[in-house]
Specification:
The complex is a heterodimer of chains A (285) and B (304). Chain A is mainly alpha-helical and 285 residues long. Helix content of chain A is 74%, strand content 0%. In chain A, helix 6 packs parallel to helix 10 (254-283). Chain A is elongated. Chain A starts with 17 loop residues before the first helix and ends with a helix. Chain B is of the alpha/beta class and 304 residues long. In chain B, 36% of the residues lie in helices and 26% in strands. Chain B has eleven helices and 13 strands. In chain B, helix 3 crosses helix 4 (106-119), helix 5 (135-146) runs parallel beside helix 6 (165-180) and helix 8 (216-223) crosses helix 11. The longest helix of chain B is centred in the middle third of the chain and has 16 residues, at 165-180. Classes of the chains: A mainly alpha (285), B alpha/beta (304). At the A-B interface, helix 1 and helix 4 of A face helix 2, helix 3 and helix 4 of B. Chain B: Its main location: membrane. Chain B: It holds the Pfam family ABC_tran. Chain B: InterPro entries: AAA+_ATPase, ABC_transporter-like_ATP-bd, ABC_transporter-like_CS, ABC_transporter_ATP-binding, P-loop_NTPase.
C-alpha cells in the first residue's frame, strides 16, 4: 500500500458513533422518511405546479361562475347559504381536491412501497421503526397536498371570495382532512398484498361518492334524509362545514365545531395506529 | 460479535430455521451455504433485527435484536436479496437518502457517497437514474448503500445471484477488498464457488438445520476426497455403469447426468474404469469442491 493511500478503511470510515445513530433515528426517523419522499418529489414538481395552479382556476371559474350564474339567477338575493354560489362552493372544491390527492398518494404510494418499488422494506433495514415510516409518509403527503390547497387559497384571495384570513385557515382545515382521510386510506391499502384491481375502488367507490354526497356542490340538507347519513360519516362533509365557517362565516353551533374537529382527529388517530400495526407486521418477515 | 444458540423461526406449521447455533468473530468472512429455501435468508433477517425469532438466543454486536432493533441495525450494513433501491432517484441520491435514515449529517453523507461511488465503480453513473443501471451495477450500488453508515458487519444475502459471470467477478473483487480491510462479512449463497472464494468459515445449512461447519478446505478434507472423477455414459446407462465400477475409488455417487468417483487420485480411478472395459462418453478429473461436501451430507445437489 502506498503512503498516499488513506489508512482508514471503507467500512471503518471513522466518525460514525453508532450509539448516537440509533438515538437520532429513534427520535427523528419520521423526518428522514419525509425527507426521502420530498427529495423524490423534486422530479415531478413542475408538472405538479402546473396542475396545482391550473386546476383550481378551472374548477372555481367553471363551476363557480358558470353553474353559479344559473344557481344565483334561481336563488335571487338570498344566494346559497346566504352567499353567492361561487363563495359557497369554493371551500368545498378546495377540500375535495385535498381529499382526492391524499387518497391517491396513500393508495399508490403505500401499495407500491410494499410491492412495486419496495421502499418500506429497505427503510426497515435501517434503525427507523414502522411508526416512523407511517408518520413520515403521511407528512410527505401533506407537503404534496399543500400545493393544491395553497393554489385554491390564492385563487380565492385574488377573486375576493370570503376573507383572506378565512382562505388561510382553510389550508389548515384541508391539511387536517388530508391527514384523517390519508390515514384511513393507508390503514386499508397497507393490508392489501395483491393488486387485483381493488385499488381503484377507493377513487371510484369512496372518493367520488363522498365528493358528491358531502354537501360539496349543494347543501347536505337538500338531499333526502335517506341519503344524508353519507354526509355525516364523510370526513369531507365535516371539513366542508368548518371550511365554510372559516371562509365566509357560515353559521355553526359551537358544539358542532367540536364535533367536526373531533371527528377528523379521531379518524386520524385511530387509522394511524391501525396503519402502524399493519406496517410493523408486514415488515417483520 | 454475532452469537446464536438454538435459534428458531416458525411460520405457522412451517419451521424455516430449526434451532441453529453459530458464532461469528470480528473480521471474519462467514458464510451460510445451502440450497434455496434452506433458511439462510430467514437467519439473515433475524440477525438484522428485521424478523423476530420464534425461539432461542441471539446477540448481535452487544444487543438482543428483539429489544434493541435500532441499536443493532445502526451497526450493520444490509444488502438484501432484492436490491430495493429507489428507482425514481438518481444513483447518488439513493446513497444520500439512505444515509439520512441513520441520522448522519447531510454534508457527511454527501462526502461519503462520493467515496462509496468510487469504491463501487459508479462515479460515472452518479447522476443516472437507477432504473437504467445493469443488474451488476445495481448490486454494487446496494453494497455501497450498505456501507454508508460505516457498519461493523456487512450482511450480504445472495450477493451475486442473477448476475452474469463477469459481473460476479467484479463484485467478488469489491467484496475481497472489504475483506482485506478487515470488514466482517456475513453472507448467504447457494454457489459453492462463491463460498470457497469469499468465506473463511462457513456452515452448511439444509432444511433449517446446520449439517456441517468449518473452513472450506477443512470441510472438503473431512467430507470428501482430494480429487473427483466425473464420468458420463448417457443418462440411461449411468446407473448400470456405476454398478460395474463398484469398488473403484473410496465412494461412488450416481447423479442423473453423471457418475462421480471419489478418490485421492482421479487419474488412477480413470485407469481402473478403462481396465474394466467401460468407455464413458466424457470424463473429467477435478479437485473436490463444497458441492461434493453438500452432496455427501444431504444426498442432493446445491442447485436443483
Amino acid at each position: 500500500m502506498s503512503e498516499s493511500m488513506p489508512t482508514r478503511t471503507l467500512a471503518d470510515a471513522g466518525g460514525v458513533d453508532h450509539g448516537a445513530v440509533a438515538r437520532r433515528s429513534r427520535t427523528w426517523g419520521w423526518w428522514f422518511v419525509a425527507e426521502h419522499r420530498i427529495r423524490a418529489m423534486r422530479s415531478y414538481v413542475f408538472s405538479w405546479v402546473g396542475l396545482g395552479i391550473g386546476e383550481p382556476f378551472l374548477y372555481i371559474v367553471g363551476l363557480g361562475f358558470g353553474l353559479g350564474m344559473l344557481v344565483d339567477a334561481n336563488q335571487g338575493e338570498q344566494g346559497v347559504d346566504g352567499v353567492p354560489y361561487i363563495v359557497f362552493v369554493a371551500p368545498a372544491l378546495a377540500l375535495a381536491a385535498a381529499m382526492q390527492t391524499a387518497a391517491q398518494e396513500n393508495t399508490y404510494g403505500v401499495f407500491g412501497g410494499f410491492k412495486w418499488f419496495p421502499m418500506f422494506f429497505s427503510m426497515g433495514g435501517t434503525p427507523i421503526s414502522a411508526a416512523h415510516i407511517v408518520l413520515g409518509f403521511q407528512l410527505s403527503v401533506l407537503v404534496r397536498v399543500l400545493l393544491p390547497l395553497t393554489a385554491f387559497a390564492v385563487v380565492m384571495i385574488v377573486l375576493q371570495l370570503g376573507t383572506v384570513g378565512g382562505a388561510l385557515v382553510l389550508i389548515g382545515i384541508g391539511l387536517l382532512l388530508a391527514t384523517a382521510f390519508g390515514f384511513a386510506v393507508m390503514s386499508w391499502v397497507s393490508t392489501q398484498t395483491d393488486d387485483r384491481g381493488q385499488l381503484s375502488f377507493i377513487e371510484r367507490f369512496v372518493v367520488v361518492p363522498l365528493t358528491l354526497f358531502s354537501g360539496t356542490y349543494f347543501p347536505l340538507e337538500t338531499l333526502p334524509l335517506l341519503l344524508q347519513w353519507i354526509g355525516w360519516i364523510s370526513p369531507l362533509w365535516h371539513a366542508v362545514e368548518l371550511g365554510r365557517t372559516a371562509l365566509y362565516g357560515a353559521a355553526i353551533e359551537p358544539m358542532m365545531l367540536l364535533v367536526h374537529v373531533g371527528y377528523l382527529v379521531a379518524i386520524a388517530v385511530v387509522c394511524c395506529l391501525l396503519s402502524i400495526r399493519t406496517f410493523a407486521k408486514r415488515l417483520d418477515k | 460479535m454475532i452469537e446464536a444458540t438454538g435459534l428458531r423461526k416458525q411460520y405457522g406449521d412451517f419451521t424455516a430455521v430449526d434451532g441453529i447455533d453459530f458464532a461469528i468473530e470480528p473480521g471474519e468472512a462467514f458464510g451460510f451455504l445451502g440450497p434455496n429455501g434452506a433458511g439462510k435468508s430467514t437467519t439473515m433477517r433475524m440477525i438484522a433485527a428485521t424478523s423476530t425469532r420464534s425461539a432461542g438466543d441471539l446477540r448481535v454486536l452487544g444487543f438482543d435484536p428483539e429489544t434493541h432493533g435500532p441499536e443493532v441495525r445502526a451497526q450493520l450494513g444490509i444488502v438484501p436479496q432484492a436490491d430495493q433501491l429507489d428507482e425514481e432517484l438518481r444513483v447518488v441520491d439513493n446513497l444520500i437518502v439512505y444515509g439520512r435514515y441513520f441520522g448522519l449529517p447531510l454534508d457527511y453523507v454527501k462526502r461519503r457517497s462520493e467515496e462509496l461511488l468510487e469504491f463501487a465503480q459508479l462515479t460515472e453513473k452518479r447522476t443516472a437514474r437507477v432504473d437504467g443501471l445493469s443488474g451488476g451495477m445495481k448490486r454494487r450500488l446496494t453494497i455501497a448503500r450498505g456501507l454508508i453508515n460505516a457498519p461493523k458487519a456487512m450482511l450480504l444475502d445472495e450477493p451475486t445471484t442473477g448476475l452474469d459471470p463477469q459481473a460476479r467477478h467484479v463484485l467478488w473483487d469489491r467484496l475481497f477488498r472489504l475483506k482485506e480491510e478487515g470488514t466482517t462479512l456475513v453472507l448467504t449463497t447457494h454457489y459453492m464457488d462463491e463460498a470457497e472464494q469469499l468465506c473463511d468459515r462457513l456452515v452448511v445449512i439444509d432444511k433449517g438445520t446446520i449439517v456441517a461447519e468449518g473452513s472450506p478446505a477443512a470441510l472438503i478434507r473431512e467430507y470428501s476426497t482430494r480429487e473427483v472423477l466425473e464420468v458420463r455414459f448417457g443418462s440411461a446407462r449411468n446407473a448400470q455403469a456405476a454398478e460395474a465400477m463398484a469398488g473403484i475409488g473410496q465412494r461412488i455417487e450416481v447423479l442423473p447426468d453423471r457418475v462421480l468417483v471419489y478418490d485421492h487420485d482421479g487419474e488412477a480411478a480413470m485407469s481402473a474404469v478403462h481396465e474394466r472395459g467401460l468407455s464413458p462418453i466424457t470424463s473429467l478429473v477435478r479437485r473436490s469442491s463444497l458441492e461434493d461436501v453438500f452432496l455427501r451430507l444431504t444426498g442432493r445437489s446445491l442447485i436443483e
